Amino acid sequence: MGTEQRSLELIKEAARAILEPALSDGSSAIDPEVKAWLPEVARDLHVRIVRPPDAGAGSFREKLKVQLRGTSRATHLLAAELMYLHVLPLTNVRPAVKLDRITEVLSWLTPPPPLPEPLRLALDTPGAFSGGTGFNVQIWRQIGWLLEFVQHWWALRDDVRTEAFSDPWKFRTAVASMVTDQPGIRNSLLYLAFPDTFLPIVSQDNKRSIRDAFSHFLGLPSGQDPLSVDRDLFAIHQIHTKQDENANYYREPYVSQWRKLAGNGARAWLIRPRDGGRELLEQWLDSGFVSIAGPRFGELAGEPSRADVHAAVEENYQHLDYVQRLSLTTDYHSFLRVLKADDHVIAVDGDRVYFGVVTGGARYSDEPTPRLTCPVAWPSEDGITFEGGEPFSKHATHQGVVVDITAALDSIKEYTRSLVGSEEPERDQHSTSPRSRTLPPPSDGLISRVHGDRGWLQDVIELLEDRRQIVLYGPPGTGKTYIARELAHHLTGADAVRVVQFHPSYAYEDFFEGYRPAKAQDGFVGFELQPGPLRQIVAEALTEPHRPYVLIVDEINRANLAKVFGELYYLLEYRGETVRLQYSPQESFCLPHNLYFIGTMNTADRSIALVDTALRRRFAFVELHPDDIPVRDLLRRWLAVRGKTGDDRPGLLAALNAEIGDEDRDFKIGPAYLMTPDAERADGLRRIWEFSILPLLEEHYYGRLDRQEVRSRFGLDAIRLRAGESS
């Protein structure tokens, strides 16, 4: 059993150790003599922490300590065990922090009970899924839902409980029959109770997107309700595990197939209380929601597409200018279909900024006035003073009622966490600034593989860190593409590296996104918007914001760059800003800070002096030239490693480049031509000279030297003679 599977097994055993006695006779797993999971105990704890919630300053644990004063041992143990189940499967909370949370709560008891060893061991695992910031911001709300589940469980008939305790689908039905719902903690509970049936996925949107992406295995989906989605996911996962025992929908080859349906992970939004001002904002903060006015909009059935929203706006808002109607369509569609659970929200009122996390989906409401509403957990009703220098401040000035400011997501997450109180930061908080040094220095392995200079490699890595995009340029054979690949694989895993090659016919539609022929269900051929390599890697980079992703663009100068990059050219210079896309104008798109570009450019094709000024401004250019470090003496070092110190190839290459001269500096020959197995043999070296090196020089000297003159001046025999003379 692998390490990951062993960790999941420990989590499974620990969850069962708590839930089995809890749901059978109400016993505590930590102190089996106490009946901590009875309905009256759950009601007592629910009244203390949920009704009314404490919105004041302080962390959840600080408030909980006060709320538990004077309680019974049973109430105290129930709080500890619910907190244990809440934090047990999280990958975004460090094991030491998990243990500290539980042992602190237990320490408030007299005498404090020890945490059983199996439960302690399970906390020392990496976890099963990331709960995101939502699982920190919403602790009281999620614990409150678990308390409601406990009360609901004991209200069921004895025979229903008995069946549900042993049958995952009867258990799922029992959970579905609750009056209230909290999708994140509900999905966590299902996984902990029956991990062989329910997947470790807490985002309901992600569950639905995964199901929809692979629904062709089923014929037709069962339905859109959460229970139907769970049934479909189970059936799909059964099919996948027959081919891949460890099928994980957050890894390839699965993740890229459903991510485009779910969007690019968590987003950040600025939502303005435009029609209600301060009074409406206070309603948001007091009641836990955000809203936008919809006096003429009405309720749309199902899951409306942008076209459905546009049709409703066109029908009901003809009194508005068409530009206003387009803007309204974008606002309504973003609020209804793009805004989702675990997204971050900010609201601005004068010089105060308020931070929240979305906890569910949007819906239409006509009470007290027609509007679209969405539930939001506000960690604090105080917010912060808006001074204008915050990392997200430039985004807060964007126009609109519903504004996608995902470019500022990292900084918004930091402020949200700070408002939670003193709860420990999530694991991904270690990189707090997009400009902090996160790329690893050159390793001995990298230096050995590229036979390079440590100082030069360190400079390149730091340059890439600062600029986010560089071009390695130089004459042919200087190892530009090889170094780009090795450098990328040193910086991150192979699954986070993509390579594309530009050419004269390459276009925006190839590189980013465009319409491609696709067979429709009716058998006819239509067109479907398909992502290109840049859009795909951006989607993946956004799911792991603190892991480097690298896109290598080979021969970047061979394409019409303004045509290929389009509006994205702006984002290369202004990371963190957003643009509207040609083919997806409803989306605000940004290039994440953890995406790096490494281009390569052959100066035999085009001098850097002729490169588009816009490209030169956006990329840092790093030369690889036979006369300079690290290419100079590269061939000699490579041969020395192989014990061939007397080889004549370095002398031949030096003589060839001396003959080409500084006047034709961009056309000197790199050592890669002479570092192949074929070059080990005399006949092989002659073939390389005849069929690789001389044709390059013939093309370069076309019009100045004829073919015979090129061969007599640069042929292998002539260069051997010059090498002998120079030695």
Automatic annotation (TrEMBL):
Family matches, as InterPro entries: AAA+_ATPase (IPR003593), ATPase_dyneun-rel_AAA (IPR011704), Methyl-DNA_Rec/Restrict_Enz (IPR052934), P-loop_NTPase (IPR027417)
Gene3D superfamilies: P-loop containing nucleotide triphosphate hydrolases
A Pfam family assignment: AAA_5
Top-level taxon in the UniProt lineage: Bacteria
Residue stretches making up the AAA+ ATPase domain: 466-630
Region of interest called Disordered, as start-end residue ranges on this chain: 417-450
An annotated Gene Ontology molecular function: ATP hydrolysis activity
Protein name: AAA+ ATPase domain-containing protein
Native source species: Amycolatopsis lurida NRRL 2430
